[in-house]
Amino acid sequence: MKDLLPAESPTWRYLEAKIAELFLSYGYQEMRFPLLEQTDLFKRGIGEATDIVEKEMYTFDDRNGDSLTLRPEGTASCVRACEQHQMLYDRGTLTQKLWYSGPMFRHEKPQKGRLRQFHQFGVEAYGFEGPDIDAELLIMTARLWKQLGLESAVSLQLNSLGNAGSRAAHRAALVDYFESHKDELDEDSIRRLQTNPLRILDSKVEATQRLADEAPMLTDFLDDESKAHFDGVLAILDNIGIPYEINPKLVRGLDYYSKTVFEWVTDRLGSQGTVCGGGRYDGLIEELGGKPGSAIGFGMGVERLVLLLQALDGVPQEIFQTLDVYIVAVGDSRAAAMNLAEALRDQAPSMRIQVHCGGGNFRSQMKKADRSGAEIALILGENEIQNGVVGVKYLREEREQLTIEQNKISTLFI
Ligand code: ATP
Ligand code: MG
């Protein structure tokens, strides 16, 4: 779990502002939900046989003896909140387009791009059955990559997991196949043969991966409706010109997916290459106690996007300029300096102004002004106060120091 320090926080703020602005511009509305939920929500929502529930959750009993868990992802909480506030069925069938952001917690092996407290932006859309919403989510993320200058570094992988029927037929074939190669499987995968054989395809063990390459493909078991749905998604992407690769082995880490699943991946971050992943999970709302309803969403990892932006030199330098003006207050001018700063803030609310606090002589204050990164130092002493003026020193340019009337200072910045 990491602290975010001032050297990096401008990058985060820049990225977070871009993402939030984009989601809002597509008509998605923000949700905020608690960091803690009942453990049972995640067990049911994510699935007992997943890595997250089996070994990654931060779970504890509170003072009442209730089992609570720090949220490892946002999807289950979002469905829970929408159910609780009757956002899904109030008058007939409602639709919702939502986004959220914040920290998620998973007890994983920490590595570059893999943390125990990490941060996600997530999007969820409820009540949309057709393939248009699947495509819109991908179109929206493609625009984000473009706006961030990342489009050449990420690519889209797609697959369809079909409906429950196709997955059951595939599962039977998969179990047969892996049973006949049981002696070549790793321990985790042998256990998954009973609980969740699909996840064996997702294994990171090399020998298992080789077996998985030859395993029966879900694509060959797709029902007609899922096939038509997937073709619908692809047609919209083709039409708008978003390239993709169909990856029949893409199954995603969570239990709740159905039909379309996708990942945006990059080869610039080593093995932590997925920056955004998601898909359709039409069964989840019902699983969590609601009426059946369509749902689709994705999560993107902020840490990985920050790393990618930095790797591509995609962080605009101007975001690190955090101050415009530093007010140097020498002699008995503390109160006057505060007044001057407030008057300037009234006139130019977006200007970033720091008033020197803590006294000290002219030289030491000027040193601080220089180190602050501000463009301009405004110098105020007893003489200046008496004459209603202020000294102006340009800290980053070779320019004459000048004196200007206090009520004309704002003209310096226009
Ligand atoms: P991975 O296969 O990398 O473990 P995942 O399938 O577990 O990813 P999701 O649950 O789909 O990930 O979360 C969505 C996104 O959140 C991921 O694509 C990734 O960018 C980010 N993410 C997931 N886990 C972590 C983590 N421990 N640290 C940093 N980012 C993460
Ligand atoms: Mg994971």
Description:
By secondary structure, the protein is of the alpha+beta class. The chain folds into two domains: 9-163 and 223-311, 2-Layer Sandwich (BirA Bifunctional Protein, domain 2); 322-412, Anticodon-binding domain (Rossmann fold). The protein contains 14 helices and 16 strands. The protein has an eight-stranded mixed sheet with strand order 1-5-6-11-10-9-7-8. Strand 15 (389-394) and strand 16 form a beta hairpin. Helix 1 packs antiparallel against helix 5 (131-148) and helix 5 (131-148) runs parallel beside helix 9. The longest helix is centred in the middle third of the chain and has 18 residues, at 131-148. The structure holds adenosine-5'-triphosphate and magnesium ion (MG). The site of magnesium ion has 2 residues, from loops.
Summarize the structure in short.
The protein is of the alpha+beta class. Helices cover 37% and strands 21% of the residues.
Topology:
Elements: H1 9-25, E1 29-30, E2 36-38, H2 39-46, H3 51-56, E3 59-61, E4 67-70, H4 75-84, E5 96-105, E6 117-126, H5 131-148, E7 154-160, H6 164-179, H7 187-195, H8 206-214, H9 224-240, E8 245-246, E9 258-266, E10 274-280, H10 284-287, E11 295-301, H11 302-311, E12 325-329, H12 334-347, E13 353-355, H13 362-371, E14 376-380, H14 382-387, E15 389-394, E16 402-405
Parallel strand pairs: 1-5, 7-8, 12-13, 12-14
Antiparallel strand pairs: 2-4, 3-4, 5-6, 6-11, 7-9, 9-10, 10-11, 14-15, 15-16
The chain binds adenosine-5'-triphosphate (ATP) and magnesium ion.
